Amino acid sequence: MFNNKVQMIMGSIICILVIFLGVFSSLHYFGVKEDERQRQLFINHLYFSIDNSIYYIETLMENNNGNESLEYYIRALEKNLLEADASIRYGNMLMDSKLYPSDFFRHASNFLYGVSMTGSVTADVPPMADNNELTEIDLALLNTIKGYLENAKQEMYSEQTKQENPSLTIDELNKIIATHLNNHHSEIYKDAFK
């Protein structure tokens, strides 16, 4: 009688543990899948913010004929640069705190409306297309920023998907950010005029 009760209690405990482990395993599995989906979505948003920024830099430079207002293209470029900045900031805060933070996109967008620099480089850069025409300084800065963006985009690219590589790891993204998307005002300026 006592043996039968112990076996029944042990059987009940084992059933409860199996159910608990099954529920826990499934929750863990779906959590891991959701984290993976969020990482891929982040990579996609960052990639297309970079791609759109390149597009607007090219469009801005192509329409530099004095006939058309460049203000729309400057605002569109600023919007895409700041979207990329927000992607990295929110990716660092919400997705993975190991993601390398970068101020590159904000520094690059500051050149659009003029910036004063002191320190290792002292310069006053006027707003771009101030007279509805890009100056040689504007073109040099835009080409430099575009070069950084193209290099980052190329490293994010996958021949298999013909766009971003969805399986990039945080370490690989950090390497791309540190290598191509980590310059401040003065470094961008120096690279443009070396």
Concise account of the structure shown:
This protein has six helices and four strands, in the order αααββαββαα. The protein has about 190 residues and is mostly helical. Helix 2 packs antiparallel against helix 3 (about 105-110), helix 4 packs antiparallel against helix 5 (about 170-180) and helix 4 (about 135-155) crosses helix 6.
Describe the protein.
The protein is mainly α and 194 residues long. Helices cover 69% and strands 5% of the residues. The protein contains 6 helices and 4 strands. The protein has helices at 2-62, 71-95, 104-110, 136-156, 170-180, 185-192, and strands at 115-117, 123-125, 157-158, 163-164. The strands form 2 sheets. A two-stranded antiparallel sheet has the order 1-2. Strands 3-4 form a two-stranded antiparallel sheet. Strand 3 (157-158) and strand 4 (163-164) form a beta hairpin.
